[in-house]
Amino acid sequence: MNYKFFSCLLLIVASFNAKAQFCFSPERPQLGQVVSFTYTPQTTPLATDSTIEGRYVRYGAPNEMRLSQPANVSLIRTGNEYVGKLTIPKKEVAGLMILFRNSVQPKRTDLNKGQFYVIPVCDANGRIVPHATGGQASVFTRSHFLYELNAQPDPNWVVTLYQHEIAQNPDLRPQYWSDLLAAQIKQRKPGYGPIVKAGIESYLASRPTPTVAELATAAQLYESMGDFPKANALRERQKAVDPTSSLVQKDRSMAIRNQSDWTRKKAAYQALLAEFPTSSYLPALTVLMTDGYFKNNDIKGLITFVEQQPTSHTDPLMLNTMAFQLADERRSLPEAELLIKRAMAVLKTQPKPKTTAGNWETEKQIRQRQLLNTYAHTLEQQGKYAEAYPVYQEFMNSDDIDNSDPRTNERYFLCALRTNHAAEARPMTEAAVQIGKATPALKNALRDWYAKQPGNSIATADIYLADLEANLRAEQREELQQLLINEPAPAFSLTDLQGRTISSSAFKGKVIVLDFWATWCGPCIASFPAMQQAQTRFQNDPNVRFLFVNTREGGPLQRVHTFMDKHPYNFVVPLDSQQKVANAYKVQGIPTKVVIGPDGRVRYRTIGYNGNPETTVNELSQIVEMLKEGK
């Protein structure tokens, strides 16, 4: 190949070292031809490598860079050189860009100093075709070829390529002007701001009537430099040029979002829908309006609105959430049933959402079970138990009981009781109890049903339920055993809300549960219903005492009195106003539960509240029982 020919073409190909690492034939390849090339790695980063392959990408006009999908090319070693072949496509290509790498260790590469090795396409007269230079820059700015190598383009080289293309082919300026200016912004040479702005104005002035796309691109360039007034001015020009443009629709969409008056919001949405029925902003707005109907408690309007929407604008999971909440709150139950039926109908034909990863059919089945759960809930809340039970059977999965929801298990068994199918639901319900996926209400319902069966009684039912939970309780006790500590329990003497003296010396030989709390502590208050249950469980046990130590209150004592007067908790509340007891018991945050064993030593400490009342009651109760047993 004649390298002088290409060097005189000014920057069309990457610069070569004196020993010419890369050459190809024919020297002026045309579309559709096979090009043979030779790569000599001696003076490159791959000089010591023995397993080398090529990786190339085709390039052309900016709007054709979608063709730039990298591919590998095999090489044959002949002495110190590697030989390969590439076929130039028959159309829409202005050249090929190649890098070389170790085929075993792909991170070892020769990128020709970041410029790649280039095979430009020529026409029948041997002249370099349009885009042969600018297309190289487009590989750097419009494709991921360089980024897959964790490399960054040289902004100076990119600018040079674009400038050369426009100089050689002035008629291509409309295709490259914005890319060149964007590259100059990234280049950030001193004084680039005025140069780029002058370039924008010069280009727009050269166009008798700039297109919406050109105005939008110019606005983006100004915005990238922080000149928002000029960017906004150009966007206003866009709206004037095309009152139906996406920008106009976006402004209308934002106005709807920002409208606080619900009646006006609905009217604005309907106006946008009528004027732009295919607007890309409608799907997201539809979700917003759906939520608006629900939050404004316009449930009948919500049903009408949802039924008018195409499936592509409908989110089944959103409708599911709304229907379930309505069912849980026992309001608008017929409408809740309609909502969930609509959600199920949409899900059947819904294509895979872009935000969903993994197998869509599997995910679809999971969502279908969620929707069926809500459907059963809406039916049973209306007293339609005979209709609800077959729905439960459709989605309840005995093989996946480990991932089941305790509340759903409860509703399933209660529905089975009401439809005389308790015996049929018993195996799954027993399994739920055995692995801790049963609510207290479910366990009570199962025990009561069992007690009514022929030959049984309340006593045998209690034994039956205890047997079901035996393994679970043993596992839980084993886990809790690991959490037991053994620390001195500092003596204390406090005054409670009734003015009584509460002294640790009065509780020798007993298990004492200390709950450190304050009225301003949300998690403390949230845990009180569970703590009331735990206290009630031991209310007839003289060897267990619960003390709810108010500490870190930081306000008037009356606040504590007022709180306790307003709530039905029969707690003993000692006052630790100086935090001396809290500090002595190493309370780092509240709520903190501390359990003192009969031996007068701290055996258990936990901070915070997990939000699960049953778990809290069970764990605390088992700790108390273990300490009573001398564990």
SS elements, strand count: 17
The overall pLDDT average reads 92
> What is the CATH third-level topology name of the domain at 3-152?
Immunoglobulin-like
Major sheet attributes: 8 strands, mixed
Spatial order of the strands forming the largest sheet: 10-17-16-13-14-15-11-12
- Rg, please? 38 Å
Which residues sit in consecutive blocks of at least 5 with pLDDT less than 50?
Answer: 1-19
How would you sum up the global shape? elongated
Approximately how much beta-strand content do the residues carry? Answer: 5-15%
Written account of the structure:
With 631 residues, the chain is an alpha+beta fold. Among the domains are: 3-152, Sandwich (Immunoglobulin-like), CATH 2.60.40; 190-242; 396-478, no CATH class; 487-628, Glutaredoxin (3-Layer(aba) Sandwich). Helices cover 49% and strands 13% of the residues. The protein contains 23 helices and 17 strands. It has helices at residues 3-7, 134-142, 155-168, 173-187, 192-206, 212-224, 228-241, 246-258, 262-275, 282-295, 299-308, 316-328, 333-349, 360-381, 385-395, 406-418, 422-434, 440-451, 458-481, 522-537, 557-566, 580-584, 613-628; strands at 22-25, 34-39, 52-59, 71-73, 76-78, 81-87, 95-102, 109-110, 117-120, 487-488, 493-496, 501-503, 511-517, 544-551, 574-576, 592-596, 601-607. Helix 2 packs antiparallel against helix 3. Keywords: Signal. This is Alkyl hydroperoxide reductase. One of its GO terms (biological process) is response to stress.
